[in-house]
Write a structure and sequence with these properties.
alpha+beta; 290 residues; Double-stranded beta-helix; single chain; 27% strand; seven-stranded mixed beta sheet; three-stranded antiparallel beta sheet
Length: 290
């Protein structure tokens, strides 16, 4: 089957058709997928309605080593590399992470080696009266860096910032009340802050990308808090500008793949809890940002 590629408007986003990922993908087809991701950063492969967790892991391994998420209770029992993103409850307990994606973020940026590529597969999508909810929004980190004034590019060159899972956990707990607030001892089970460049270089394309995100980045190294907070707030607002955006409207069977260096993302929580959302996710270990 011949692959068909269609780019979305704007600097990021594309769709690919003509692939059945219940079977092993050919080397030529995978090379094409990889090239489109490098060029467009966010790619959807539609129609993967029969994709099992084992199929997803097999395809994910083409990109590298799948990561096992720190929230073990949200991982697939049979395939722990698969992380459930869902508002569904089973046996009185939530199936997976029910509040993932509240803030703009890059996946697993709180690790020394953050996620390179993320694959998210839609099993159930919130729908009512023919309308679909819960779009995932993306912001292009390369386009955002390119659009910065030269003096701002020079100002952030060489700066590093702290990215914290512990910071995110309690911020989300306090703001949304969907998870417990943890004390300092309880937070120790999660990774310590990872320190990454504010402007990192893409390991494949060589383009500069803004690598700070509202969800996890909370302090610039060597800078007073007021100055750090002000600069981060500017960068958070800048990267989320409409000119750099793509919004993915989900269909059941979509497999969405994105490059976590080149984009950030955020979920849209515009639906009531009775509308079911169930997705399975794999993240691929990336490189140490530089």
């Amino acid at each position: 089957m011949t692959l068909s590629i269609e780019n979305s408007d704007g600097p990021i986003g594309a769709s690919i058709s003509g692939i059945d990922l219940t079977a092993k993908i050919s080397e030529d087809d995978f090379t094409t997928v990889r090239e489109v991701i490098d060029a467009r950063a966010v790619v959807v492969i539609r129609g993967q309605t029969d994709l099992k967790s084992s199929n997803l892991v097999r395809f994910a391994r083409c990109f590298g080593t799948p990561q096992v998420n720190v929230r073990a209770e949200a991982n697939n029992d049979a395939n722990p590399e698969v992380f459930w993103v869902s508002n569904v409850h089973e046996n009185g307990k939530p199936l997976g992470s029910h509040d993932a994606g509240r803030y703009w973020h890059s996946d697993l940026c709180y690790l020394e080696k953050p996620s390179g590529v993320t694959l998210l597969h839609a099993l159930e999508v919130p729908t009512r009266d023919g309308m679909t909810f819960g779009a995932t929004q993306f912001a292009g980190a390369s386009a955002a860096y390119d659009a910065l004034p030269t003096d701002m590019q020079e100002r952030i060159e060489g700066l590093t910032a702290r990215n914290g899972y512990r910071f995110m956990w309690n911020r989300k707990a306090r703001e949304f009340g969907k998870r417990p607030v943890l004390n300092e001892t309880e937070l120790q089970k999660f990774p310590e802050d990872a320190i990454h460049p504010i402007a990192r270089t893409h390991p494949e394309t060589g383009r500069k990308c803004l690598y700070v995100c509202d969800g996890y980045t909370h302090a610039i190294e060597g800078m007073e808090k007021d100055e750090s907070d002000s600069l981060l707030a500017f960068l958070f607002d800048h990267i989320a500008k409409p000119d750099f955006r793509y919004s993915h409207e989900w269909q059941v069977g979509d497999l969405l793949i994105w490059d976590n260096c080149a984009v950030q993302h955020k979920a849209r929580f515009d639906y009531p809890p009775e509308l079911r959302r169930r997705m399975q996710r794999c993240t691929i270990e990336g490189t140490v940002p530089y």
